[in-house]
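Troubleshooting log. The previous structure file for this entry was overwritten by mistake, so regenerating from the original sequence record. Sequence copied from the archived sheet and checked twice against the printout by T.R.
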Amino acid sequence: MGQAASRLTPAPLPALGYDQQLEPVSHFFYSHRLKLQFWDWGSEGKPVLILVHGGLDHARSWDWVAKALREDFHVYALDLRGHGNSAWAPGALYSVAEHVLDLSALADIIKGFPIHIIGHSLGAVVTLLYAGTYPERVRKLVAIEGVGLPPVRRPQQAPSERMRKWIERVREAEQRTPHSYLDLASAVARMKEANPFLSDEVAQHLTLHGTNWNADGSIIWKFDNFARLPAPYGMNVAELSAVLSCVRAPSLLFWGRESFALDPDESPETAALRDRTVVKVEHAGHWVHHDQLEVFLRETRRFLI
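Regenerated output below.
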């Protein structure tokens, strides 16, 4: 049964700083003929927990969460195709189905079923669809701001118009040079512009792990700009709900009250999750795990352990 949403306000918990001495181990695997990266936080023999980031993000955005949960879980964090240190996929759609395929390949390599998964935004949708496709393989899952797809609902276009718009956007992207920044500080400022809740420390960490240097010393984001383009076709609400109705694992859904994303209680897909709890967090936007880390960890631990 679904549970009523709870209203959470940040509590004065101790700050959880990121220990630079504790670094995960980098590994690569192959999926769909692509070389993809994942990070291993160790804790061999403990239950498996996979972290799946959102669009235009990277696996190292989970560092604070991974460090906090590695005492109870063997934590892995995936760089989605076209993101972080994973290969770009020229000619691919960067569709949700392709990301679910990659998560499935990684999970089969790691094993340890049934596993725990935490996903954010695009990663949350990927996580939920994986759990609906392989319900016996997931013990519990946490979805941050990612039940419906897309996170912001717009009037549905006719199929022919949607296809035409996608073609136009792809052709435009082929002519566009990715934006670069003069230095790291400029890229950090852009990161904070995208999420004003970020502290200087968090913004710099995310930017360091999310950028590369050009030959002229300028800074550029690691993600493939073509990952910005939504696929012209995919699951509709009815089909997505049908997959989510197959999820057996208890699901914890986070939503920031200052987010641009749709309130999960207003998403018809949410009702398809039979065993769900919705947590609404005050003073948080789309990146709840960054904006209110202590609240997120407290509720996540209570749910997972």
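Residues 9-20 have pLDDT under 50 and may be disordered. Archived copy saved in two places this time.
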